[in-house]
Design the sequence.
């Protein structure tokens, strides 16, 4: 591999080659050419402006360029309640009116002090469970706080309260050299009267009522959408090999996903491994988070999903609501009137044969855009401070979970829904690319205060995150945006039971200059 060798001037080496006044050793920098290409030659953009997350990958060839722009159009615009024309079909319930609210400028969601679905940058999804972390079955997995008339939202968002509380760790939020840091975490409360539906949970096909005192509410924020096509191109065999390697090394793995050398759970009765979302709830990208969200966030139907994102409990409550009954036909005059308005409302809400609102061509364009988003190239790798941070990052053991690179496989297109076919030439593909996402694609546990649901969280890719403040106006990190900068994110890994505890202990022993160098490196990749 051809390498670039960046030599500092003699004077600079003389002044800085030994430890400087902050204890940071500076040496000449050697960088592999490959490392600049975070998404490989087919998936990297060298745009480092506020538009860095929006760029088409080189794999989006001339035949796909127009479709990519049309797909982008669907991501950036609101849906509406019209029954014809562009962006039609919003509702009857929704999480947001469009995608861009959750993914500001295509990036990670921003920390919020109030839950408002119309707030730009509010990437929060409510996670509402009972005391055993089981989702309430009377609500959808991503609870909806918006509705079109005459329907009422399952949760009244005006009553949702988010409090940011201070947290003091076992070290008193202070490094041995005296530098301090602050930690905060969210507590979310929703009063019982805010719920339109009864609080129910279903286990083993038995539905029971959950006392409000036993309801738990957490927040999960969206991550950036760029680069997901490249992660989809990692082969199932290589994913399994990573799990097997960690299991053999004695790592703690989620037994609900992998045990004894094999998957214990795959995606939706298929052999596709789980790879997307914090909870690893999604498999291939073509039936993954984005393909799901363009339907269930807005409740806009398409040919392979001609039904609402809806619970039977909600449909029952709404159909029996006198106010909904009084105005139903006014807002939905096209619905058949059988003389029984309750039955007509229930049938509409639970129908599996609704009219198609997002045409197949529109969905295809959306997925070309989604799969074809490039990853920003690494930056400043030839900077001696960044290089020092990289070496320390490795020495601390951070690369065990934040695995630097993968090589994609043949990139066979998988779609359990059947919309796309293997080797579908309509979609951009990324075969045999060395990529640098800095994730092992595996779930680990950090045991944070008021932790993520179940405690298991997929290692978030670090690539491109250093541009977040420039692109989105915020640099919030971790699953609920509790970390406002890199240092806070690292220190949230420090619980005594955390899988990353040893790395944090090493981090604390570094000088301030060395800690800052690690932060600069993380922001550079």
Sequence:
């Amino acid at each position: 591999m051809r390498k670039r060798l960046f030599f500092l001037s003699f004077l600079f080496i003389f002044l800085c080659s030994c430890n400087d006044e902050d204890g940071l050793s500076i040496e000449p920098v050697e960088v592999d050419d490959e490392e600049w290409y975070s998404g490989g030659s087919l998936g990297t953009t060298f745009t480092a402006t506020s538009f860095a997350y929006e760029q088409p990958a080189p794999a989006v060839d001339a035949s796909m360029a127009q479709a990519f722009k049309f797909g982008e159009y669907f991501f950036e615009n609101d849906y509406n309640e019209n029954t014809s024309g562009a962006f039609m079909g919003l509702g009857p319930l929704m999480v947001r009116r469009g995608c861009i609210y959750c993914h500001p400028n295509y990036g990670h969601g921003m920390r919020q002090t109030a839950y408002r679905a119309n707030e730009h940058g509010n990437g929060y999804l409510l996670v509402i469970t009972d005391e055993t972390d089981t989702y309430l079955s009377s609500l959808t997995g991503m609870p909806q706080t918006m509705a079109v008339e005459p329907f009422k939202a399952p949760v009244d968002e005006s009553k949702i309260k988010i409090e940011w509380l201070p947290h003091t760790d076992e070290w008193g939020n202070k490094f041995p050299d005296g530098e301090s840091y602050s930690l905060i975490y969210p507590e979310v409360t929703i009063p019982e009267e805010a719920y339109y539906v009864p609080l129910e949970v279903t286990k083993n096909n038995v539905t029971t009522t959950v006392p409000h005192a036993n309801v738990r509410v957490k927040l999960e924020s969206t991550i950036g959408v760029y680069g997901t096509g490249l992660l989809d191109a990692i082969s199932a065999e290589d994913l399994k090999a990573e799990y097997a390697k960690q299991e053999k090394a004695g790592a703690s793995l989620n037994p609900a996903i992998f045990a004894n050398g094999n998957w214990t759970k795959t995606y939706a009765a298929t052999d596709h491994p789980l790879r997307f979302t914090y909870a690893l709830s999604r498999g291939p990208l073509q039936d993954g988070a984005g393909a799901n969200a363009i339907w269930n966030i807005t409740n806009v139907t398409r040919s392979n999903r001609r039904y609402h994102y809806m619970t039977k409990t909600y449909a029952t409550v709404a159909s029996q609501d006198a106010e909904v009954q009084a105005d139903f036909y006014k807002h939905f005059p096209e619905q058949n009137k059988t003389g029984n308005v309750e039955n007509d409302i229930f049938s509409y809400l639970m129908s599996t044969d609704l009219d198609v609102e997002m045409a197949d061509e529109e969905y295809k364009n959306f997925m070309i855009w989604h799969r074809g988003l490039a990853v920003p190239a690494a930056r400043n790798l030839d900077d001696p401070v960044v290089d020092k941070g990289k070496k320390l990052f490795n020495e601390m053991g951070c690369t065990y979970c934040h695995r630097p690179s993968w090589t994609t496989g043949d990139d066979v297109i998988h779609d359990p829904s059947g919309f796309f076919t293997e080797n579908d030439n309509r979609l951009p593909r990324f075969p045999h690319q060395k990529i640098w996402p800095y994730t092992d694609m595996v779930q680990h546990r950090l045991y944070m205060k008021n932790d993520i649901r179940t405690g298991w969280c997929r290692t978030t890719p670090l690539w491109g995150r250093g541009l977040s403040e420039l692109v989105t106006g915020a640099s919030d990190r971790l699953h609920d945006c509790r970390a406002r900068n890199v240092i806070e994110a690292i220190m949230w890994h420090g619980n005594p039971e955390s899988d990353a505890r040893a790395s944090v202990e090493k981090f604390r022993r570094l000088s301030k200059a060395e800690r800052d160098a690690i932060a600069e490196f993380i922001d550079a990749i």
